[in-house]
Amino acid sequence: MYRTGDTMHLRVKIVLGGAPTAASLTVTLPLSLTIGSSAVWAVTGNKTLGRVSGFDNTGDTYSGMVNYASSTTIGVFVDYAAATWAVQGNPMTDTSPVTWAINDVIYIHAEIPITEWA
After folding, report:
1. 3-class SS at 41?
2. Does the global pTM surpass 0.70?
3. Which among 112, 113, 114, 105 has a CA at the least distance from the CA of 52?
4. Do the beta carbons of residue 65 and residue 53 sit within 8 Å?
5. Nearest to 44 by CA among 74, 12, 87, 8
6. Which residue has the higher pLDDT, 86 or 21?
7. 98 CB-side CA count, 13 A
């Protein structure tokens, strides 16, 4: 993570040590910071803040978007791909877009306006 003006440049690498729970993938901002919601789009779910890339240990790759989820969290959503997974915009979970397992890797890159830095 680094800062430019009122923007947090967030880079997260998640290496799975086992199968995750069934919850949607979200990330809570560090340091109790809040997202400057007036600086992002007006409709929750369409407030795209960045991109996500996932790498299955079998060699398959997946992509998606990072969106505003709440004033302190970002959510990770999948792009449309094979017919085996849901349409664009569905949350990334333990089984979407793939059944995640040990040694799979997810990279999150986001630029987030921060209220406290404005």
Report:
1. coil
2. yes
3. 105
4. no
5. 74
6. 21
7. 20
